[in-house]
Fold these 3 entries.
Entry 1:
Amino acid sequence: MLISDLLTPETIIADLKATSKKQALQEIASYAAKQLKLEDRAVLDVLLERERLGSTGVGRGVAIPHGKMLGLSKLYLLFARLSTPIPFDSTDGWPVDLMFLLLTPENAGGDHLTALAKVSRLLRDEKMCMLLRGSENAEAIYSAILEHEQD
């Protein structure tokens, strides 16, 4: 499984405007819900439920909100770059400006963990994070991810 198998330029938000963790989660939930033809609130509830277990802010300006959803037939991945970093209760205390949203079917099993591991590995690469932060638009972000996976 490659990130580029799950992500498209249409599932990339290159300039998400949010001033808080809650607003950022609401925005990405709404965006995902429209694409998946689900209710905004259903997606947001899954994300908030996961955040109650502990922040998905993994450090170095990165968050990976995720959860399992009823009604999904396949994994869904969305990337958002925030226009301004926001507090996110991250493990290192840094504000977040890069977010990957991962939604998986309830019966996804190991696919959920595999996708989380792939995203986590991508975002551990400091050069990759710099490219994501510096790319001009969704297409450039997608190209940077494709190039990274081909290396």
Entry 2:
Amino acid sequence: MRVHVTHPTRTLLPMSSTTTQRHAPDWLILSIACVAQFMVVLDVSVVNVALPHMGHDLHLSENKAQWIINAYVLTFAGFLLLGGRAADLFGRRKVYLLGIAVFTVASIGAGFAQNGSEMIIARAVQGLGGAILSPATLTIIVTTFAGPRLPKAIGAWSAVAGAGGAVGGLAGGLLTGLANWRWVFFVNVPFGIVAATVAARYLQEQRNRDATVKLDVTGAVLVTGGLSALIYGVVNTTSSSWTSSSTLSWLIGSAVLLIGFIFWEARVASHPLVPFRIFHSRPLTIANIVMVLAGGAFFAMWYFLTYYFQNILGYGAVRAGFAFLPMAIGIIVGAQLSSRLLVKVGVRPLLLVGAAFATLGFFWLSLITPTSSYWGNLLTPAFLCSFAMGLLFAPLAMAATAKVDRADAGLASGILNTARQVGGSLSLAILGTVAYDRTVAYVRTASQKHSPLNLQKLAYVTGYNRAFQISACIALAAFFVSLALPAKVGHHSSHAQPAEPAAAAAGSGH
């Protein structure tokens, strides 16, 4: 029997789609969401430490090997909005199972890849699976938990999402150093099988009353093409200049597609992929701007620290992986503290403190030299940045979904995830280019002053310094944008919101 749960503006339909589904405790539903999100985020960073080994075995140059990362990020960011809307329209359970199936099968393909082309194709499919899966995980949480349980659940999800970046470095180092880089992908398979089995058995289906509405295919093509072209154009600057015809062609094409998307959604589409009414939520709009900035600063941090550990400090893959462990702990501590303070102080104070810590941490990292030590010069600022990341992600997830109908939870989470991935992708490409240009300029001006080995290390670190300086500026911008967020968002005094009955009823079957 269908139970209709009515929201003042939209209706959700929880449905038991099979007779084998069982009632599950909340902790199990939270685990279903967190395990999948961890897999998706982990795969963005787990490849970094293993990348030199992959490039060697697959006969890829350093520039081409970067596409093992770029192919994943490109499809992940490009299809997130589509994945988020699909979770609303077709049901969180169906979309979750589809996403984890695509992701797991693509992981097997990447693990068995015999050349660069096979690897890049498998990684692109992995990114597509992640884009389908990731928004569904936050949708599951927002439609299952209500009241004071929601900030705690979002805090756990945010800790897992944030820690995935740091743990990725550790896992990549251990798997590459102790086994083989192929296990970086094979390790996803048992997790994917277990998560899919548990979700199929215990996760109740839930979708909108509007689930019969067809997906806005034209809007999906326009926004996916526009975002993909934008990211590809920026990533292309690692091999071509910003003013080259190839880079400009991609950027202009992106602008045309994104403008076309806005026109289509606002004036033409009868059931738009992104109803612009959702941006009437000021907290959602501000949260996404801050997420673009935060994602940009933090995503680049893992990349540059990975190369600093291996190229400058001379760490092997295993040791470089362990160097990220305190950062993973920092994220988890920050996220847990944030989730406990969220209801008491609200979103804005946590965003301001987190952005301030991040600014300080990145500026501190910009002072590293080729002779800096891990324990004396790197650990404290890197831990501070990681702790700041943990403080930020839970409040941002809360702000993005606090004033949005629960029937649009998938869309809101898709937009937030898109903001993080687009910010991270653009920042990594831009900061990578800036660091490279700074390195080349240093070599030209200082080539007569140092031995070749010292010159190389100094040149690299000079580039890393500039990247961290810009990251500090990005974090400072996030601080000022956070000031525009309404003061009561997330505070206990704002919990009398009309969307809670839907969320409470959604979780009542557990």
Entry 3:
Amino acid sequence: MKTKLIFIFSFVILSSFMDKPAYKIYDKSGNQSSYENMLLECENADIILFGELHNNPICHWLQLELTKDMFAKKGKDLVLGAEMFESDNQLLIDEYFEGFITENKFENEMRMWDNYYTDYKPLVVFAKNKDLKFVATNIPRRYANTVYKQGIESLKMLSKEAKKYIAPLPVKIDLELNCYKQLSEVMAHMGANAGINMANAQAIKDATMAHFILKNYKKGNTFIHFNGTYHSNNYESIYWFLKQKKQKLKIVTIATANQIDIDKLDEENIDVADFIITTPETMTGTY
């Protein structure tokens, strides 16, 4: 009997050392947290900015799980939105959800990201089946590209119709925010205006996403927005634009980070968001 107990104890100890968790969640201070804690905070949020690594399968799974659990709490008061869909495609989403066009037509005519079918379609299908609003928040890429090539002032030349798909002009942009300042410095070697234009191109994306989040949010709702973690890390980018318009909004931010070791939050990832999902660097990507 004693030998059997020793064997069982040894097996438990060995198993604990062999455990390979797919992810761990930390709070902003670097303390280990949990999905349950994250969900509790999200339940009381007006807006959730779920920052992803675009090819991270664990992140996409957790996005869907959080959406399902939030729907169980909020029902039809839940609204979804995503960087991956551009604002001028909102009509296609609405027509598809209303059954006016087929799934095939919808997918053929939308400018889908290559990983739509594996990573974002489950969210779209869930929203459609539950009759939830799904908002295309991002600026049409052609306009962001124009800013990169010609500068932020080029947006003034857009038609009245085109301006419906971007944040109202003029857009207040703070290029001293680290997210833009660092980008500008990295790109500066490519030309006199390359760094500033790139920073402004990212900023107009953030401003537009914030604009369409607020346009489709109303008191009592919870709006979950899916975006690249860059666009909400460090309480900048989309978060900053939202707070400029509505300071009192309760916003919960979620970041995603790959680490060599997920047993401790890396220093560089402390305080980047309210919750940080860490996954091993060896995690298989969706593309």
